[in-house]
Amino acid sequence: MTNPVVVEVTRGGRVESMHRGSAVVMDGGGKTLFSIGSVDAPVFPRSAVKAMQALPLVESGAADALGFGDRELALACASHSGEPAHADLAGTMLAAAGRDETSLECGCHWPMDQAAMIALAKTGAEPTQLHNNCSGKHAGFICTACHLGISHDGYVNYDHAIQGMIRDTMASLTGEHLGVDNCGTDGCSIPTYAVPLTSLAHGFARMITGSGLEPVRAKAAKRLVNACMAEPFYVAGTKRTCTRLMKTMPGRIFAKTGAEGVFCAALPEEGIAIAVKCEDGTKRAVDAMVAALVARFLTAGDDMRETLMAQANRTLKNWNGIEVGTIRVTDALS
Amino acid sequence: MTNPVVVEVTRGGRVESMHRGSAVVMDGGGKTLFSIGSVDAPVFPRSAVKAMQALPLVESGAADALGFGDRELALACASHSGEPAHADLAGTMLAAAGRDETSLECGCHWPMDQAAMIALAKTGAEPTQLHNNCSGKHAGFICTACHLGISHDGYVNYDHAIQGMIRDTMASLTGEHLGVDNCGTDGCSIPTYAVPLTSLAHGFARMITGSGLEPVRAKAAKRLVNACMAEPFYVAGTKRTCTRLMKTMPGRIFAKTGAEGVFCAALPEEGIAIAVKCEDGTKRAVDAMVAALVARFLTAGDDMRETLMAQANRTLKNWNGIEVGTIRVTDALS
Question: How many C-beta atoms lie closer than 10 Å to residue A119's C-beta?
């Protein structure tokens, strides 16, 4: 199946570039409410499933034992911008388990957000692993291992107990087989497993509704989702899409981006979840796709619909602030 | 026409993302040697045609009057990285015409290259318009206006004499109508005109072969192309694709990228030019496309074919340096 064009980028009134993609909306019972493109083709969810990967941190009792609140749990689900508050909190989480930055195995990179990168460079400092956008997630893995009395050495590897716990958790939530045959290595070195968008949407719908989940998991899932919605800055950062969406609709949306054009979102009030993939991996496209799909599934009189469509269809300006074009979703989505 | 998949990005042995695009290879006589996808659909060439836009600087006599050599001419054709040598030379060009950075109308942005951005931030300085990747091109416009005794105020506007000269030059080279109806505004505020890839490839093939050009234009075109090939650092910068290609094959290739997935290249020895567009505007895709197409049109025993295919099909590593996947061109190109 050829994925439909879902987002167009215009200049001078013409389509300059276009993005193809797939998207699905499901409820906790596994009913498909909307579907477009190859939603049954396996995709690597990358960072879009960090909230699923953080479940063992809560279910194991580690989060409670270490006194983690909403901010720490949000950071454990985050692809953060490497702003000072993010890096500092990742360090604080590690310190709670008696560890520090040297225990991280995510690798080091400059903050991915340009403003955060420039701000750090201006201080004269170099980035550490704490600035890696995944440092909160990795701190959560290390804290879980420490709480369970497992060595955290090599916690990023497929065969480590932490990754086994994550694999079991995600297989249960998504109903998919996760193994070496559908495994790739993520940017932060942990395994990522290719599964259909339908299974990702169903998994997140179950996380917000508790549908078919054991009480411990249902409670942990709700706690993580609520933590992200309560502390959206710690899930991403200043001017980031996930943060903006969760600030736009406080308590009404959970939103998490992943690399290569994946995005998962969930609407607790509506009991539905969205999973999208832009086939070319472009961020600007999935940001527009998710905003348009969320708007579509709000009730007719909801004020947020207009706000979201203004995020989906927006003007592009050049370096002089002159309007040069637009990004807009196609009829396939709106 | 649905453009074919031309580049795949893999992870864990699976295709994670894919890019569709169009490409054409032509000679100076207008013969099509290779074609794939919608090559007759108008595309905005953006910065890929800066060497065409620099022709009035040479043809007017401004370049000679101001003593510009290969470096200045290369910078006039550049989308540079904003490294100190780039910004300094743009300032020197303006000074030759008795002007300075305040005459530029391109706008200001941090160097687009991450390393250059970090290096500038570490100095504590803020970027100026000289760091704009188009500052050399704009300095060339201002120098041309000064040499011709025209006010350079508003030189970025469609109705300014400088843009009229560029429009006439490009219309003649490409054989296309350029006007308000196919005009958009570029990132640096000058007009950009949507024309078919075939016309772009034909135009560059004429620039390197002189086919059908008046002697003055043929000489100016050769001088600009030779300047870029002689000073590839000034066309882009450290680790940039255009610079790398021209350093890989000294004197044998002219290469120029443009925003939104456009790329033009020309092989003077073979007398052919290449124009490509990735429909989703992604840089990684066109970089691979161009390397593969150049390799395809080199003679069978050419050592460079293997070198170029290693640039087209390359390994992706994560933050820890672990191989996680590949970028590769599809059979449609290779």
Answer: 16
